[in-house]
Amino acid sequence: MVNFKVIVRNVHVYSNLEVRLKSRTTKEEANKEVERMVEKKDLFKDYEWKIEGCEDGGINNFDNKLTEKIVERIDQEETDENIFWDGFTAHYDLNVSHILVNTNLEAPLKSTSREEAITEIKTLCENPFDGYDWKIENCDENSINEFNEALKSEIQKVISKDIEACIEEIK
User: Fold this and answer.
1) Cβ-based burial of 120 (10 A; exposed 0-12, middle 13-18, buried ≥19)
2) Which run of H or E residues covers position 5?
3) Phi, psi (5° rounding) for residue 61?
4) At what angle do helices 64-76 and 27-40 cross, to 10 degrees?
5) d(CA 150, CA 166)
6) How far, in whole angstroms, is CA 28 from its chain's centroid?
7) In 74, 95, 143, 163, which residue has its Cα 20 to 30 A from 101's Cα atom?
8) Are the C-beta atoms of 115 and 121 separated by less than 8 Å?
9) Helix residue ranges, H only, the chain
10) What single DSSP character describes residue 39?
11) How far is Cα 88 from Cα 4, in angstroms, rounded to an integer?
12) Which residues pair with 107 in a beta bridge?
């Protein structure tokens, strides 16, 4: 029996981001590191940003727009409250909540043939969130903060462009 999933690429979702900081000694040092990152607006050079709960990152575009959103969020919140010590790796991590990122989504389908999958996806487009367990592609945790009309519209738009490209066999 073959199982399928729907994959929707390059859609924007609100998610929490995290990055491993270089600081290893004190939280004060970690705060200064974040301040330097924000001041230079050079957040991605030499840092591995990822969507919280995604080992492989999950972020498609590291552009100026994303930088601006992260900097804005950091400026709004107390940096100190978003820096956490990771005892396993002896590093500090910075968490930035509720940021709109470009990523890929996936949801398992109930279909057992490609033809059934096409029909199911056409039905799914009417209300993509009803009865489907969407998550960020290749992420173990549910890292999507908000299922809204804008996301629904993006999913529908991507699927309507090329329904065949959105079907993948689960191996």
Assistant:
1) middle
2) strand 3-20
3) -125, 125
4) 130
5) 19
6) 28
7) 163
8) no
9) 27-40, 64-76, 114-124, 149-161
10) H
11) 36
12) 6
Instruction: Give the residue from 136, 100, 72 showing the smallest Cα distance to 14.
Output: 100
Taking the whole predicted model, whether its pTM rises above 0.70 is answered as yes
Buried b (16+ CB within 10 A) or exposed e, 43-75: bbeebebbbbbbeebbbbebeeebbebbbeebe
Q: Are 1 and 112 in contact (CB under 8 A)?
A: yes
Closest CA to 84 of 8, 18, 15: 18
Given this model, what pLDDT does residue 1 score? 66
Rg, C-alpha atoms of the chain = 18
Question: Which token pair is 29?
Answer: 């040092």
Per-residue tokens: 168: 């993948």
Which DSSP state fits 110? S
pLDDT tens for residues 77-130?
Answer: 877 788 998 877 778 999 999 999 999 999 999 999 999 999 999 999 999 999
